[in-house]
Design goal:
The chain has 489 residues and is α/β, with parallel strands linked by helices. Helices cover 42% and strands 15% of the residues. The chain has 18 helices and twelve strands. It has helices at 3-12, 14-34, 55-75, 79-89, 95-100, 122-143, 173-198, 205-209, 227-230, 237-252, 272-285, 302-306, 314-318, 324-327, 348-352, 355-367, 405-417, 481-484, and strands at 39-48, 102-106, 112-119, 155-160, 216-221, 259-265, 290-294, 329-331, 336-339, 370-374, 393-399, 422-430. The protein has an eight-stranded mixed sheet with strand order 5-12-11-6-10-7-9-8, with helices on both faces. It has a four-stranded antiparallel sheet with strand order 2-3-1-4. Helix 10 (237-252) packs across helix 11.
Length: 489
C-alpha cells in the first residue's frame, strides 16, 4: 500500500479509529477513577563506620560502607527487619505483603538507602517508611562486626524522616488518559487497515477505479427516491446528482445520436430503477424527447414509480398485441413518454433477444432523442446483456456499501463478453457531506422581489399528475407460453 492508500484508509475508516480511541480513553480514565489512590512516603538511612581518626581510616570506612550498602538494601525486605515493625504496630499483614509495599533503593555512589512505603493512607505510609528505616538501622548495627570493646563497626542514622504526603502518587490519571488515547489510536489504525483488507464492498470512486476504467459519472446521495421526482423536489441533492449524470452522458454519448442507454446494476436493490426514472425526467427537463422503457421483465418497477398503468407495455408490443403508439403513456410535465413492462412473461430472455425487440428499438431511436431502458441486474439473470447490440451503451449503478467487488467485477465481465459499452458508473446511496450552497428558488408570485428570511414563502411539494395523452390498449393480464412463441426471432 502506498501513502495515498493509507491516507484513504484513514479517511474512510476514521469513525472506527475514533471510536476505538475514545474507548481507550474511557477505559484508561475509568480505571484511574476506580483504582484506590496510593501515597508514597520516603525516608533516607545513612550508614557509616565510626572508628578511625586519620583520613586514611575514614576513607577505608566509607569504602567499606559503600561496598556493604547493597547487602543492607536486600536486608530491608527480609522478615528480620519487617517482623519487628509488624509486631510493634500490631499490623494485620505479613512480612511478604509489607515487602511488596516497599521500594528500597541505594543512592548511587553513596552509602545512603532510600526507603519508600506505599499505602492508601498518607499517614500510614509515613509511619511505615520511618519504622522500616529504623528497624533496618537496628538490624544492620546488630549484624555488623564488633571491635574489642564490643562496639558495632557500622552505625545507621535516619537523615531524612518520612513526612505525610500531600498528594497521591498513583493513579496518574492524566498520563493514563494520554496512554489510553495513544493506545486506542494505534489499535484503531491497525483495526482500520485490517478492516480495509478484508472488506470487499464498493464504498467510493477509488474502489470503482480499481476494477474498471469506466468513469464515475455521478454520485447520488442516500435517501434519494423516485418521490423526489414525482413531488418536484428539484432542489434535492439527489436530483443534483442525477443532473450531473445527465450532463456527463451528453458528452460521453456525443457520437451515439440518438442515444439509447441501458441502466443496470450487478445486484437487485441497488436503485437502478430509481436512477432510470430520475434520469429520464432530468433529460426531459433539458428539452430532449425521451422514451423510458421498463425492460426489467422479472421485477418491473417503472409503472409503480411513475404511477402509470403497467398492464400494457413492452411485452404487449413485442407479442404484437398492440402497436407502440397504443402502449405509450405520457408522464409528468417534461414530455417523457413511458413504455411500461406490461404483463410479466414466462420467457423474458427470449423476448428481449427477439427481432421484435430490435425493430422496437430502431423505431424508438428514430423517434426520440434519448431512450432510457431500465433493465434487470446482471449477476442474477442474463437478459440485460442481450440488449448490447441494440443500445448505445450501459450505465452501471452501484450502491455504496451494498455490492462487493467480485460481484461488480462479474457484472463488468458479463458486459465485456457481449461487447457492451459501459458509459460509466453511478454511485448510489453515498453519504451527503456537502455544505448547502445557500440559494433558494425564487417565488415569482411575490411581486415585491426578494424577501427577508422571516418572510420568505414556503414552497410546497405538489405531486405531478401523470398526463396520459395517448390512448391505451385493452388490458392483457397474462402472456402465455403459446402467445410468447409468436414473437419472431
Amino acid at each position: 500500500m502506498q501513502l495515498t492508500d493509507h491516507l484513504r484508509v484513514l479517511r474512510r475508516r476514521w469513525i472506527l479509529i475514533a471510536v476505538i480511541a475514545v474507548f481507550g480513553v474511557v477505559c484508561a480514565g475509568g480505571a484511574s477513577l476506580l483504582s484506590t489512590p496510593q501515597y508514597d512516603a520516603k525516608s533516607i538511612v545513612y550508614f557509616s563506620l565510626p572508628n578511625g581518626t586519620s583520613g586514611l581510616d575514614l576513607q577505608a570506612g566509607s569504602s567499606y560502607a559503600q561496598s556493604q550498602v547493597e547487602s543492607y538494601a536486600e536486608l530491608a525486605t527480609t522478615p528480620a527487619v519487617l517482623e519487628p515493625v509488624i509486631t510493634q504496630y500490631a499490623l494485620t499483614t505479613s512480612s511478604n505483603a509489607l515487602a511488596g509495599a516497599l521500594s528500597i533503593t541505594v543512592v548511587q555512589g553513596t552509602s545512603l538507602i532510600s526507603v519508600v512505603a506505599s499505602d492508601p493512607s498518607p499517614a500510614r505510609a509515613a509511619l511505615l517508611s520511618n519504622a522500616v528505616a529504623d528497624s533496618l538501622g537496628r538490624q544492620v548495627t546488630a549484624f555488623s562486626p564488633r571491635d574489642t570493646a564490643d562496639k558495632a563497626s557500622v552505625t545507621a542514622r535516619i537523615v531524612t524522616q518520612a513526612k505525610k504526603p500531600m498528594a497521591p502518587s498513583s493513579p496518574k490519571t492524566k498520563r493514563n488518559v494520554i496512554a489510553g488515547l495513544l493506545g486506542g489510536l494505534l489499535i484503531g489504525v491497525v483495526a482500520a487497515v485490517l478492516r480495509e483488507m478484508t472488506d470487499t464492498r464498493l464504498l467510493d470512486a477509488e474502489d470503482v477505479k480499481e476494477l474498471t476504467n469506466a468513469p464515475v459519472i455521478g454520485r447520488v446521495v442516500s435517501g434519494f427516491t423516485a418521490n423526489d421526482v414525482a413531488l418536484r423536489n428539484v432542489y434535492s441533492p439527489g436530483m443534483e446528482g442525477i443532473r450531473r449524470v445527465r450532463t456527463n452522458l451528453k458528452f460521453l454519448g456525443v457520437e451515439q445520436r440518438p442515444l439509447a442507454v441501458a441502466i443496470t446494476s450487478a445486484l437487485s436493490g441497488e436503485g437502478k430503477s430509481t436512477i432510470a426514472v430520475s434520469l429520464a425526467h432530468a433529460l426531459g427537463e433539458s428539452g430532449q424527447s425521451v422514451l423510458l422503457i421498463d425492460a426489467d421483465l422479472r421485477r418491473p418497477a417503472v409503472g409503480r414509480m411513475t404511477n402509470l398503468d403497467d398492464s400494457v407495455g413492452l411485452t404487449t408490443v413485442l407479442i404484437g398485441a398492440v402497436e407502440l403508439d397504443d402502449a405509450l403513456q405520457s408522464w409528468g410535465t417534461t414530455g417523457v413518454d413511458v413504455l411500461a413492462a406490461g404483463a410479466v412473461p414466462p420467457n423474458p430472455s427470449e423476448l428481449l433477444e427477439s427481432q421484435a425487440m430490435e425493430r422496437l428499438m430502431k423505431e424508438a431511436r428514430a423517434r426520440y432523442d434519448v431512450v432510457v431502458i431500465d433493465t434487470a441486474p446482471l449477476v442474477p439473470v442474463v437478459e440485460s446483456a442481450a440488449l448490447a447490440r441494440m443500445v448505445s451503451g450501459y450505465v452501471l449503478v452501484a450502491r455504496s456499501g451494498a455490492v462487493r467487488s467480485q460481484e461488480f467485477a462479474e457484472a463488468l465481465s458479463t458486459l465485456e463478453n457481449v461487447d457492451g459499452r459501459v458509459y460509466g458508473v453511478v454511485l448510489n446511496g453515498v453519504a451527503d457531506r456537502r455544505t448547502p450552497y445557500g440559494y433558494h428558488p425564487v417565488d415569482h408570485d411575490d411581486a415585491s422581489g426578494p424577501t427577508s428570511r422571516g418572510s420568505r414563502r414556503e414552497h410546497k411539494d405538489v405531486p405531478v399528475a401523470p398526463q396520459q395523452t395517448r390512448s391505451r390498449a385493452k388490458r392483457i393480464p397474462v402472456i402465455s407460453g403459446s402467445t410468447a412463441a409468436r414473437v419472431t426471432h
